[in-house]
């Protein structure tokens, strides 16, 4: 028995937890976007003024740093929870002998320390808005990795979608990333810097908001076109996914306009950040829904499969 085979056999009992751990990965990575928003919206971005320590003499927060230190340090602690979930998910994937699941769970796991380092850079650069934007966009990418893992594990069997569907789906995906990026530009121009001394990107908030809104209109239009194509072709899975994503987009659009008109109240901005994470997940779902997926490759191991010797990885 080879080393890899022996390791997979020992980890086989964990395979039954792969699906719930994959879901936990997605939830945790969306949750840290919201807690990160809480740090910024409460002005706690430099509550721990240095990194990797919280202060010059301590890795943890203390009374002198006040509530802002507690909020910022709490967000740092979330990284350890994400790491624990990611490691457990990776080990479960190894035990399931599902090659694609191993690959995606490994990429998700790599994203956690990468984000921790980026978080440190945002502190050390005193919340540079462009660094903060990149930090946020990497979170969106990790969320999409989580969706790819879920798609590998449990999605209906499907073939390659017709070319018009694929072109529209990938155009929707690309424009969705433009929307997410422009959202960070609007944030960098707005009032919620994360700290009273953090600088802004110097762009006009009204102008950037209008450009962002135009990109949202284009995204919604493309999603409607994709939905029409899916309905006409009788593709139920793509129809379901596109409908859900369109609902997220419309909700985000309404929320965006309301928060703009009300001068960016903190609660609405936090909800908008939650919606951004959901949108990133939906965009990945749309892109994957037009690509082939073979149910036979899914990790659906029963007890016998979990403990049986394996000669190769599936996937």
Structure description:
By secondary structure, the chain is an all-alpha fold. It folds into two domains: 1-154, A middle domain of Talin 1 (Up-down Bundle), CATH 1.20.1420; 159-294, no CATH class. It is built from ten helices and no strands. It has helices spanning 3-11, 18-41, 66-96, 99-124, 129-153, 163-189, 205-233, 236-261, 266-289, 303-307. Helix 3 (66-96) packs antiparallel against helix 4 (99-124). Mean pLDDT is 90; it is low at 296-315.
Unreliable stretches: 296-315
Radius of gyration: 21 Å
Roughly how many Å apart are the termini? 21 Å
Largest sheet: none
Shape: flat
Given helix and strand content, the structural type is mainly alpha
Query: How many domains?
Result: 2
The CATH topology name of the largest domain reads A middle domain of Talin 1
Summarize the structure.
With 315 residues, the chain is an all-alpha fold. It has helices at 3-11, 18-41, 66-96, 99-124, 129-153, 163-189, 205-233, 236-261, 266-289, 303-307. α6 packs antiparallel against α9.
Write the layout of secondary structure elements.
Layout: H1 3-11, H2 18-41, H3 66-96, H4 99-124, H5 129-153, H6 163-189, H7 205-233, H8 236-261, H9 266-289, H10 303-307
Key attributes of the depicted protein:
315 residues; mainly alpha; 2 domains; flat
């Amino acid at each position: 028995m080879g080393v890899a085979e022996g390791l997979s056999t020992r980890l086989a009992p964990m395979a039954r937890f792969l699906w719930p751990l994959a879901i936990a990965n997605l939830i945790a990575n969306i949750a840290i976007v919201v807690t990160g928003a809480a740090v910024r919206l409460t002005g706690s971005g430099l509550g721990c003024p240095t990194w990797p320590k919280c202060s010059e003499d301590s890795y943890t927060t203390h009374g002198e740093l006040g509530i802002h230190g507690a909020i910022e340090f709490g967000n740092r602690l979330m990284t350890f929870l994400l790491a624990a979930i990611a490691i457990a998910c990776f080990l479960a994937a190894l035990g399931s002998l599902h090659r694609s699941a191993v690959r995606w769970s490994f990429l998700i796991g790599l994203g956690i320390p990468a984000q921790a380092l980026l978080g440190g850079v945002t502190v050390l650069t005193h919340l540079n808005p462009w660094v903060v934007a990149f930090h946020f966009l990497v979170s969106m990418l990790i969320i999409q990795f989580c969706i790819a893992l879920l798609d590998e594990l449990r999605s209906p069997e499907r073939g390659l979608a017709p070319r018009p569907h694929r072109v529209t789906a990938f155009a929707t995906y690309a424009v969705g990333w433009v929307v997410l990026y422009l959202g960070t530009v609007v944030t960098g121009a707005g009032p919620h810097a994360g700290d009273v001394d953090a600088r802004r990107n110097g762009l006009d908030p009204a102008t950037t908001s209008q450009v962002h809104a135009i990109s949202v209109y284009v995204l919604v239009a493309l999603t409607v076109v994709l939905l029409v194509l899916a309905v006409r072709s009788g593709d139920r899975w793509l129809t379901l996914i596109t409908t859900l994503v369109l609902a997220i987009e419309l909700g985000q659009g309404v929320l965006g306009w309301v928060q703009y008109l009300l001068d960016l109240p903190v609660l609405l901005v936090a909800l908008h950040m939650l919606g951004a994470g959901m949108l990133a997940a939906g965009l990945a779902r749309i892109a994957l829904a037009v690509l082939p997926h073979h149910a036979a490759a899914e990790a659906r191991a029963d007890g016998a499969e979990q403990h049986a010797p394996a000669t190769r990885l599936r996937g």
